[in-house]
Amino acid sequence: MNLKLDWRFQTFDELTNEELYQILRLRSEVFVVEQRCTFLDADNKDQKCRHLSGYLDGKLMAFSRIVPPGISYEYPSIGRIVVSAQGRKSGFGAELLNVSIEKVEQLYGKSTIRIGAQLYLKKFYESFYFVQSGAIYLEDEIEHIEMTRPAL
């Protein structure tokens, strides 16, 4: 399947109520319900981030937030990377990460990018030149690793 998503890239203040609701719903569907993590998703970082939303026929299928340097890490970061269950196996994850990296470079130039990745996705992120840069740690009972992508 070679579908392409319609991308919106917005500051927090540019998001409509409906867009914000769809973003929070998708993040809750995957991180809270599907992955059974009890955590506070509204972590007061969203207001400082840019939001990348991928839509297919008006439905939010993929999302990430671009976190400025100094908020989560010393480097810019891509966080809350999520694809809806209906959008998996469609290449949306790869499209999301490619567009996310493009947006980081658009905002911050060719820069090191750091992420906190779920361990089971290590090979996926490695295919985008991220390398493990920290020990395995538990976050919400899921194994994670810090990964870094050098400026390329």
What is the fold named in CATH at topology level of the domain at 6-110?
Answer: Aminopeptidase
Instruction: Give the overall shape.
Output: globular
Rounded average pLDDT? 95
Q: Are there runs of 5+ residues with pLDDT below 50, and where?
A: none
| Strand and helix order | EHEEEHEHEEE
InterPro entries: Acyl_CoA_acyltransferase, GNAT_dom
GO molecular function: acyltransferase activity, transferring groups other than amino-acyl groups
Organism: Dyadobacter flavalbus
Protein name: GNAT family N-acetyltransferase
How would you characterize this protein structure?
The protein is of the alpha+beta class and 152 residues long. The chain has a domain of 105 residues: 3-Layer(aba) Sandwich (Aminopeptidase). 26% of the residues lie in helices and 32% in strands. It is built from 3 helices and 8 strands. The protein starts with 5 loop residues before the first strand and ends with a strand. The mean pLDDT is 95.
List the main descriptive attributes of the protein structure presented here.
152 residues, alpha+beta, Aminopeptidase, four-stranded antiparallel beta sheet, 26% helix, 32% strand, globular, GNAT family N-acetyltransferase, acyltransferase activity, transferring groups other than amino-acyl groups, GNAT_dom, transferase
